[in-house]
Amino acid sequence: MAPKKITNVGGDDETPQRTTFVPTAEAKAQAGKLRMNAIILWVLAVVAEIIAMFILFRKNPEIPLGAGSRVMLIIILLVDLVLLIAGSMLWKKANRFDPASKQDALSFFFQNQMGVVAAVIAFLPVVILAFIKKEYLVGAIAALFLVGGGAASADYHAPSKEQYSEQTSRVEDLTGGNHVFWTKSGTKYHLYQDCPSINSNRTDEIFEGTVAKARELKNITELCKICEKRAEREKGLSPSQGAETQPETTAPDEDTSGTEKQ
């Protein structure tokens, strides 16, 4: 089997057993840039909303909009939706670099679900005004975009400082340091670069870094079970000490189509 390229992505942690996650200065700076870009996109989304509302304000409720004006409104709302979702994607990515703490439930909710708040701001006024002006088609489309944009903007697996700390502590307990491996299309991080799930003919490059880096760059939140059991055996923590972990014909995190899942 050909040797794999190992790419170190930084974020090395030289202080083991850290109990509270603190993002690096680099991570906080990256999060700040992403959030600023997200806010700019959301502001542009609100500008699109204002333009749509201006067109609706000028409309006499008793006189239907022309076909051209109605199409223009729908296009503006579509632009509004694209800007909203693009901003939300950046905001969610920023939260992986600089997560909130669950200790403040309100702050945790708003930091992770700002995309949903932005969706309400960007579409609800248009929905209300469209129905007041009896433009029911435009109102229905705006309502659909509100629901769809909110659903796309919500973070269903919101990161937290506590989660990062717990995951990092687990790796440190097993290996004595905060150092893991993953692949470009991976869904798990690994303790060993020779783990059979990633050290296969389908893997060209393996990345190495901290648990936080795996989350920042790939949003990987789960530890490989093969690596975990191996580390437990090596530390004498596993009930099945000395038993060999046999790789399956198809590695647990790879599919039979040849698409790598680690």
Can you give a write-up of this model?
With 262 residues, the chain is mainly alpha-helical. The protein has two domains: 5-16 and 177-234, no CATH class; 25-153. It is built from eight helices and five strands, in the order E-H-H-H-H-H-H-E-E-E-H-E-H. The protein has helices at 25-57, 67-97, 105-112, 114-132, 136-153, 161-175, 211-218, 225-234; strands at 5-8, 180-182, 188-189, 205-209, 222-223. Strands 1-4-2 form a three-stranded mixed beta sheet. The model is unreliable at 14-18 and 238-260 (pLDDT under 50).
Number of helices: 8
Q: In which order are the strands of the major sheet placed?
A: 1-4-2
Beta-strand fraction estimate: 5-15%
Structural class by sheet pairing and helices: mainly alpha
Please tally the β strands and state the result. Answer: 5
Cα gyration radius (Å): 24 Å
Mean pLDDT: 83
The major pleated sheet works out as: 3 strands, mixed
Structurally, the number of domains stands at 2
pLDDT < 50 stretches: 14-18, 238-260
Note the topology.
Elements: E1 5-8, H1 25-57, H2 67-97, H3 105-112, H4 114-132, H5 136-153, H6 161-175, E2 180-182, E3 188-189, E4 205-209, H7 211-218, E5 222-223, H8 225-234
Parallel strand pairs: 1-4, 3-5
Antiparallel strand pairs: 2-4
Helix pairs in contact: 1-2, 1-4, 2-4, 2-5, 2-7, 4-5
Descriptive key words:
about 260 residues; mainly alpha; two-stranded parallel sheet; about 5% strand
